[in-house]
TrEMBL record, chain A:
<keyword id="KW-0539">Nucleus</keyword>
<dbReference type="GO" id="GO:0006366">
    <property type="term" value="P:transcription by RNA polymerase II"/>
</dbReference>
<dbReference type="GO" id="GO:0000418">
    <property type="term" value="C:RNA polymerase IV complex"/>
</dbReference>
<dbReference type="InterPro" id="IPR022842">
    <property type="entry name" value="RNAP_Rpo3/Rpb3/RPAC1"/>
</dbReference>
<dbReference type="InterPro" id="IPR011262">
    <property type="entry name" value="DNA-dir_RNA_pol_insert"/>
</dbReference>
<dbReference type="Pfam" id="PF01000">
    <property type="entry name" value="RNA_pol_A_bac"/>
</dbReference>
<dbReference type="GO" id="GO:0003899">
    <property type="term" value="F:DNA-directed RNA polymerase activity"/>
</dbReference>
<dbReference type="InterPro" id="IPR001514">
    <property type="entry name" value="DNA-dir_RNA_pol_30-40kDasu_CS"/>
</dbReference>
<dbReference type="GO" id="GO:0000419">
    <property type="term" value="C:RNA polymerase V complex"/>
</dbReference>
From TrEMBL, chain B:
<comment type="similarity">
    <text>Belongs to the RNA polymerase beta chain family.</text>
</comment>
<keyword id="KW-0240">DNA-directed RNA polymerase</keyword>
<dbReference type="InterPro" id="IPR037033">
    <property type="entry name" value="DNA-dir_RNAP_su2_hyb_sf"/>
</dbReference>
<feature type="domain" description="DNA-directed RNA polymerase subunit 2 hybrid-binding">
    <location>
        <begin position="100"/>
        <end position="476"/>
    </location>
</feature>
<keyword id="KW-0479">Metal-binding</keyword>
<keyword id="KW-0804">Transcription</keyword>
<dbReference type="InterPro" id="IPR015712">
    <property type="entry name" value="DNA-dir_RNA_pol_su2"/>
</dbReference>
<dbReference type="GO" id="GO:0003677">
    <property type="term" value="F:DNA binding"/>
</dbReference>
<dbReference type="Pfam" id="PF04560">
    <property type="entry name" value="RNA_pol_Rpb2_7"/>
</dbReference>
Amino acid sequence: MEGVSYQRFPKVKIRELKDDYAKFELRDTDASMANALRRVMIAEVPTIAIDLVEIEVNSSVLNDEFIAHRLGLIPLTSERAMSMRFSRDCDACDGDGQCEFCSVEFHLRAKCMTDQTLDVTSKDLYSSDHTVVPVDFTDSAGYDSSEQRGIIIVKLRRGQELRLRAIARKGIGKDHAKWSPAATVTFMYEPEIHINEDMMETLTLEEKQSFVESSPTRVFDIDPNTQQVVVVDPEAYTYDDEVLKKAEAMGKPGLVEIYAKEDSFIFTVESTGAIKASQLVLNAIEVLKQKLDAVRLSEDTVEADDQFGELGAHMRGG
Amino acid sequence: MMIRLLTMSRMRIFEVLRLLVLGCNSLAFVKGLTTLTQYKIEKLTSLDGIHTFQDFVRGGLIEYLDVNEQNNALIALYEGEATSETTHIEIEPFTILGVCAGLIPYPHHNQSPRNTYQCAMGKQAMGSIAYNQFSRMDSVLYLLLYPQRPLLTTRTIELVGYDKLGAGQNATVAVMSYSGYDIEDAIVMNKSSLDRGFGRCIVMKSYTAIYQKNYENGTSDRVLRPQRTGPGSERMQILDDDGLAAPGEIIKPNDIYINKESPIHTTGQRVPADGQQDIGYKPAKQTFKGPEGESCVVDRVAFCSDKSENLCIKFIIRHTRRPEVGDKFSSRHGQKGVCGTIIQQEDFPFSETGICPDLIMNPHGFPSRMTIGKMIELLGGKAGVSCGRFYYGSAFGEASGHADRVEAISETLVKRGFSYNGKDFLYSGITGCPLQAYIFMGPIYYQKLKHMVRFSSHYSSGPRVMLTRQPTEGRAGNGGLRVGEMERDCLISYGASLLIFERLMISSDPFEVQVCRKCGLLGYFSHMLKRGICSSCSNGDNISMIKLPYACKLLFQKRASFENPFYLNEFMDTFDW
Ligand SMILES: [Zn+2]
Ligand SMILES: [Zn+2]
């Protein structure tokens, strides 16, 4: 049975790439694909986060659960997460934290001995595995490293003490947001802006100026030389329709026409630092593939063809 | 106590009022405004130490007016509005309101009952109660884990210190419909926000144990070192060697928190001090009866003595809770609503800048409530976060600059790349397609109210009243809730009358009675003859057995006891005997 092929070949163009930030274009695909990628990045790319806290001494002002919650939200470097096992699937251990396949142990010991308030931060967490450590923000962000001391957990005054053992495990954002590697993952449809030049020429300079200013974001500008309205940044357009309303109010409907290109998306990905933004995208694609494997039918099942008909052929890439 | 002398010259009345509680005092400038030079006003407003506020009160330039005096005064809101008739000028209009109403941003834009509701609700909001909150031994204490300062503040908030001890959190709210779990003021919450600590609270409850020292016969209670092995020891895991629960231990329902024993005999002949060991003791352990499946922690144990000089041991048991479906939330505009559902972040709508709301509120909450103040709060909050300052919404504050105007807020929004009307272009998190409408989205200060479903849900298989065999009344005594006539009518009108029969009779309290078909009165079952007997006919020839609720049988007997019985044979045609 020969089905029609719906296969498309999406293209990715990277615009900007930093450790914790990525901006790229995704073309020749549709919203379902773009959204699947976004959803997987938020909820299903695994990372490592503290999941179990055993408190030995805690005389701080915050109670045990409070501190455990704060510890859980500290991002840990998770390059290893993809190859690690989920604690519940691990057959090498009983989840006691001693297992190298599924857990990483942390220790924290802090006691304030002076009259100055002691800040206990993520830097005070000692890991049993040098590949899984609290994310260090000092180098990449360009802050003064002497000042920036990691994520604050609790503050201690003289005599107060905090001693604990914590176990970090692999998990996904769907179970708890602490395992989500994404700070921000969002996309927009690429806008296509056409200026009706003939109509624009009929406007006076003031009218052009007020037209340009009607957009809350800087999409248009006036060329200082030619005094023509030009599109400076189409992606700054937030689909707010303000310029369209303005054109209508000026009695010039159709002065500009703005469409959303339904097959190109501009992605913005910010990572928590657990994994690099680029790796986040790649891992998301990997996870998405694994999910598709689960629904893909094997090549030779005849019953499947009877059951799913054309859909089966389609899924086999026919 | 305070005595007020009131003269009303126009009516030639002189009143002496004795006020037990201070009346509602309002501050106002006296009429002698002409004598109050600009210099003096400056001195007052700067409070430079030369003139204090009290100097002006003593000098008669400022007067405290109570409600009765206000009836006889003509008060102008602003200096410019004063005429020759005016007796007083308000120092600042927002001082008309007290603490509760002072927390509401833009209250003068709301329908007045909404402000009234908020005044009642603000007291139920969880937050920080005082700087010594962790040293107190309240019987119940609700605290918020991460209380915040409202983004949209008022001058009153600063004056009363609500910005330091807040009772809520700034939530990014999208006003839109989502999922159908948002009807009737329910709100849809973002699971990731809850994971990150939104609306988390600590509930601390105090449990008391009394260590009775001096019984009538000179004996006293004793607290024993717990058994570490053997039967019953598993319930004593959290006890220290002193027999008291140790702070920091996780306590489960049925765990013992004090291993106490009381003497069997507490009265009678005095037991000498050296004979105390020989007397018999009975266990008087106290067990924790918290809700099943919740992990509570012993926070603190405190000792004190009560009024009769007995040692009193207080256990503070703490429980950290995250919001769940049914928990009550409210903005500062009398708009309470329960959490209808909790939805994953990836399913939530998002903007192209990556903003994803913390909660979704249904727009139907607005038209009938007319809480315009809430809308302005959203706009102002959004402008506030985008430009990094706190916006103000004091009551009647636009004229005096204590409230930001919508025009100014909109200007800031446009400057920061938002639409002037506070609406955003959002994408559906489920499909990835743009939503059909622009969504009004921004931060609103939300309070978590003290009613939580876990404590409100109630079922009973508890005690019954002996006479009626009905459950006892009230939740406190673990009693039942009444299914009254109106509730019954709901079921009938729905067409579920068989359900009533099943619930109120079969599964409730069925009772078998013997009825005489001839005289229609209740008989009895004779165990000797193994059959029913009618006492009025003195035979058992026409006896039938029927089932009815016990309370119904009680009613028949009561009626019969005042010589006005039901004759059940009248219903013989209606029912199949
Ligand atoms: Zn393992
Ligand atoms: Zn009879």
